[in-house]
Write a structure and sequence with these properties.
Blueprint: H1 4-39, H2 46-77, H3 85-110, H4 125-156
């Protein structure tokens, strides 16, 4: 059985970091979508920028929502199966997939772009690169949370199993 205090502390730190990084990514991607919808997307790869920034927006909305729900829910009802291992794993896997798709594809699109040059840069280029950075940071935080919950799920296999276990049962 895992130390309850260590699980609670690790969960609080990880999910607070995830939530904060997701709120920053949400603000950046929402401002980019609003700006580009009003003034037009970059002249090169217009649909590519639109789609990739919107994937990052969807990933940050999803991760902010689950981060808030799982953080508050675990603190209030951490001993209930409703906020158990499986309840953490599924939304984290979805968040990880969304962020990997968004951050990876936006990185590939902006990799050769020089925001300082007149021919390579575009409006809000540095902000798009900032979105790439915060998306990768959030991806790393979600991966760390996935590893944390997966280790607890593996430890819980000896007891009730991952479906019926809380994070404390591991």
């Amino acid at each position: 059985m895992a130390n309850e205090r260590a699980v609670r502390l690790t969960h609080s730190i990880l999910f607070t970091l995830i939530t904060l990084a997701s709120i920053v990514a949400l603000a950046i991607s929402a401002s980019l979508v609003a700006n580009y919808n009003n003034y037009g997307y970059p002249p090169v790869n217009t649909n590519a920028y639109r789609d990739r920034i919107r994937i990052c927006l969807a990933a940050s909305i999803w991760t902010t929502f689950i981060g808030l729900v799982l953080t508050v829910g675990f603190q209030v009802m951490g001993t209930k199966v409703a906020f158990g291992i499986l309840t953490h794993l599924i939304p984290l896997i979805i968040a990880f997939i969304l962020f990997i798709i968004g951050a990876g594809s936006l990185t590939a699109l902006t990799n050769g772009t020089d925001c300082g040059s007149a021919e390579g840069g575009f409006d809000r280029c540095n902000i798009v690169k900032g979105l790439v950075a915060i998306s990768w940071i959030d991806t790393i935080f979600v991966l760390l949370a996935l590893i944390f919950v997966s280790v607890l799920a593996i430890k819980a296999r000896g007891g009730f199993g991952a479906r019926k276990s809380t994070l404390y049962d591991a």
